[in-house]
Amino acid sequence: MTTLNPPRSASPEGSTANRPARGGREHKTRPGFLWTLPATVFFSLFAVVPLIAVVLLSFSSWRGIGDPKFVGLENWQELAGDSVMIQSLWLSLLFIVLGVLTQTPISILLGVWAAGEQRNRAVLSAIYFVPLLLSSAAISVLWRALLDPNFGIPGQLSWLFGDGNLFGNQSTAIAVIIFVGMWQFTPFHTLIYQGAAKSVPAVLYQAAEVDGAGRVRAFFSITLPQMRNSIITSVILMVVGGLTTFETVLILTDGGPGTATTITAFYMYEQAFQRFDFGVGAAVALVLVVVATAISLIMVKVSGYDKMRSTMEGL
Amino acid sequence: MKNTTNWFRPAAAATSAVVLGLSLAACSSGGSEASNRPENEVHVLVYGDAGNTVEQAMVDQFNETSDVKVVLDTIPGAEYQSKLQTIIDTDSAPDIFFNWGGGSITDYVEADLLMPLDDFIAEDPQLKDAFLPSVFDAAVVDGKAYGIPMRGTQPVMLFSNEEVLASAGIDGAPETWDDLLADVEKLKAAGVTPIALGGADEWPTLMWVEYVYDRVAGPELFEAALGGDPSVWESDESREALGMLKDLVDTGAFGNNYQSVKFTDGGSASLLSSGQAGFELMGSWAYSTHRDAAPEFAANSLGYNEFPTVDGGKGDPANLVGNTNNFYSVLANTRYPDTVRDFLKLMYSDEFVQQQVGIGNLPTTTNTGDFLDQATNPDYAKYQLSLVENAPSFQLSWDQAYPPSATPAIHGAMADFFSGRIDEDGFIAAMQGL
Q1: DSSP character for B36?
Q2: What number is the average pLDDT over the span A289-293?
Q3: How many other CB atoms sit within 10 Å of the CB of residue B42?
Q4: What is the dihedral of CA B423, B426, B431, B434, to 10 degrees?
Q5: What sections of the protein cross the membrane (chain A) (predicted)?
Q6: Mean pLDDT lowest for which of A107-116, B8-17, B74-83, B274-283?
Q7: pLDDT digits (tens, 9 = 90+) for A49-68
Q8: Contacts of A145 in chain B (CB under 8 A)
Q9: pLDDT tens, A150-182?
């Protein structure tokens, strides 16, 4: 709590600086521009250059054979009138919202619990983290088999699952994908919240106890506010993960039934690598880039993440 | 800090120069000429599965006498078509490659990537005459031959669990559409799913659509649509076929959860072999699927029949749908055309036919019948061959007759129609939009 950086003026360098001007001193302590060069080079090579290529590709017609042909706005016009494209964007947003709503409360509760000192806590925590160790593909294949309507769990528990047609209609297919995502990623977010809960100073709880606050009150008045930055971090990761959800959809539902779970990332794959229409695929990818950028900008603004105010202020 | 900067600046500059240089080199390596192809090698690319043992044996035998060596490359299952599309216009393209004829090669023909095989056939007429004509024609594009049949034919048949049929009081397979509807009612009364269907995979559903359209309207309707006349989808016959399909779904013939069932993970096949379903419409490979997964069922109670006839329908009851055959096509810029031609001649050799029959495939050479006694199930092999030989028309699966770009649209429209998300008009509009 007392490890805040000493004020600049108190640094020994300040008193021995050759030039008293404030700007000069700052210039000297700042890392040189050159340090950013490796990152800049790799970012350009693997992000900026491909992005430019995707922009160019979105204005051309290319089936993977021969050279791309410039077609102007044709791909974009096709997308604008494409109901599946519009639907895929809504579905992606729905997936994000449902993902955040299901994963956040559970991860917070589990994380706060796992930060405690209970018996067997370490053993149970280790078990929680198992899904995190499996690949998305393995998890999807596993759940696809477990939820087989005739030979899996629904076949045994027909009082709960009815005819077991989980993958056959839109709402249950979406529910399955959300559930599998929750099963897979809750451990990761639990880990974040466990760390956050552990770093809440014990003195706050002691003070609250003196004031007569119970565990519930302490949770809502101390733990949650203290974890604010972790919650923002976790939600941003969920949003980014939700936008790029792909293999789960591919393996569990293949975008189906029909196009009922075709989210934007899957639609991009379908256009480019199943229909071999790389121009339209590139256009879908750009839409995804724009939407993702917009969402993250909005989130950073709304949440105050850009300021990253310390929760330690006043302590 | 100062020392660091001294070495750091040139090092960083050098690193970025190297990285940029490499990436530029990588960009410019495409588009070179055929001269980059390997010397004294002919590459053959095939779909990777159990059939590769026979292909490798043929390659080894060929290499014993050939100076130019043949190399067999395989790409496993589902990724085959997209991987092929990725490499076919590069120096890594194979000289000879496996395909399904029809729409799976038309893009390549249009891009002038493939060699018409008519010159080979002129030199050695057996390259055409040794194969059943209806099969050979599936790889003819614009009047030119672009493929030599390889592996075997895979017609779609109506499989059944004879024990389940018997216990539901059904005597033999349904001969007409009305028989089938009656059998569905009996099977429902007996408490089983009448027809197993892997609706989650979508292509098994397409088999029902293809057969009903063929029986009602004849193969001409689809051929016209494929040829660029979308108006046929609005015809009375088209609507009649859709109505029949809708009735079949609505009556519960496929149960309530067929859209969650897959064939590819053994789901629908297990329904049939475990006695929970009476029928399944599937390609001829269903026999080997069952032989692997449920050998006792395959040996004792697996029934196989032709698709029922439809009263008043235009289509010949002997017509077939399915995978006509697999084909070998040849890249136009192959370096060793003579070696390629000699290798293709193996596809009608007695030895090749014998070995294919031995692993359960059914090659479509005119002399295949002579070898069927050596098949694992001679009765089944002979029945299949008689179907193919007697079929006036053998319609290649729709999703392979069209170029790959149409597949998601066909599958999506069909799945939506079966589930009721779109009606007849919606299906017709979707097919007209291909």
Answers
A1: G
A2: 90
A3: 26
A4: -150
A5: 32-59, 89-114, 126-146, 166-185, 231-252, 278-300
A6: B8-17
A7: 999 999 999 999 988 887 88
A8: 265
A9: 999 998 898 888 888 999 889 999 999 999 999
Place of tokens 């050759």: A18
Q: Say yes or no: domain A69-286 is CATH 1.10.3720.10.
A: yes
Kindly report which listed range (B18-32, B94-108, B199-213, B330-344) carries the lowest average pLDDT score. Answer: B18-32
CA distances from A20 to A23, A26, A30, A31, A255 (A): 9, 11, 16, 20, 65
Across the interface, whether the CB atoms of B405 and A277 are under 8 A apart is answered yes
Contact at CB, A164 and B257, closer than 8 angstroms: yes
pLDDT by residue (tens digit) across A170-229? Answer: 999 999 999 999 999 999 999 999 999 998 998 999 999 999 888 899 999 999 999 988
Read off the DSSP letter of residue B137.
Answer: G
Residue B317 token pair? 């009851």
List residues in chain A touching B: CB distance below 8 A. 32, 34, 37-38, 41-42, 45, 49, 63-66, 144-145, 147-151, 163-169, 253-254, 256-260, 270, 273-277
Nearest CA in chain A to B256: A163
Comparing alpha-carbon positions, the chain B residue that sits nearest to A37 is B12
Residues counted in chain B? 434
Q: Where are the domains of chain A?
A: 69-286
Interface of B with A (CB under 8 A): 5, 8-9, 12, 15-16, 19-20, 23, 82, 85-86, 88-89, 107-108, 111, 113, 199-200, 202, 255-261, 265, 267, 270-271, 276, 404-408, 412, 415-416, 419, 421
Q: Please give the angle made by the CA atoms of B377, B382 and B384, to the nearest 5 degrees.
A: 100
With an 8 Å Cβ cutoff, are B259 and A168 in contact? yes
